[in-house]
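Standup notes
- DV: blocked on the single-chain target, sequence here:
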Amino acid sequence: MKFVSRHFDIYFPDAALDLGGIPPATGWLTFTYVAWTIALSIVRTRYIKEALSNDMDPRLVIVPFVQMVPNRVFYNPLSLVFSNLVDIEPWKFLLNFFNLLIGGSFIERFWQSPRELAKFVLILGTITNLIVVLITIILSMFSSAIRLDLPLDGNYTILVGFPIIYKQLFPETTIFETKNLPFISKNFRFKLLPIFTLLVLSFVQLLWFHHFSQLLSIWITFFTCYFYLRFYQRLPASMAEDAEFEVVGDASETFQLIYFFPDLVKPVLEPIFDYLYQKFIVDWRIATPFRVYDIEQANILAQKRGAKPVEGSEAEERRKKLALQVLEERLLDNKNTESSTPQNDV
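- DV (later): unblocked, structure below
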């Protein structure tokens, strides 16, 4: 689907707009999100009027059962879960609603697993919320500017995490294209959406809301969602190139963390990311290191989704390593076959 104007062409993937029969997890999450957000809004609106009449800070009007408040989390631990399904900002509610309804439907169908979508939104969101609360409490010990009685927005998984999935599923698909504008002629593709979302949300928090914990939540959500998709997510074996193996994570070269960031900062970030991978994945084994075979299989799947293959010396070196590995395996197989073949004495 395409919307054409004088200066912009806007594209929508046809598969993503197919809402014929909303999948179960998407329907349940969307209904719960809308119902709880409306209920929270009604309750807060009622008591905010009383707070204003008593010269009370309206931000202190909270429902700790569903809102994540650092100094009350230990008394209401389920708020870490329920805060994934409520919002108090109208602009964020609208973005999350359409993102969940349209994007969630497409993602759930692609993953072939309602449980996987629910896990991504709720479990990853809860883990992120717990990390943010703990860090906020620790930082409050060093700075009185960080308040523990104000609620934190615990629902960034959809807004920040879904763009990572969009980049993964159709990286080279154009979202919009500018034209007939001086000095501006650009195709904005889904592969740019995660970093664009991060920068916009970060600037909003820094320049408008001035909320450090919310800024922290945005970036922790990004890294948590990426780490899960990169190393831990398990999808049905039917999605693998080799049906004997299920898909675990995404080892493709185009899904490396470095390719989420602009070229300008890659020379600085690349050695840092390489060190972190070596330390946490290879040395400490908090996730299974990728084999050459895993990377090749993931590259094939990524290219089927439209990702362009990575070029350069690193890619060539990996292909040479794969060729040597395959050759060694074949020589070993031939040697074993010859040794098992009976010999006739003359």
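- Follow-up: The chain has a mean pLDDT of 83.
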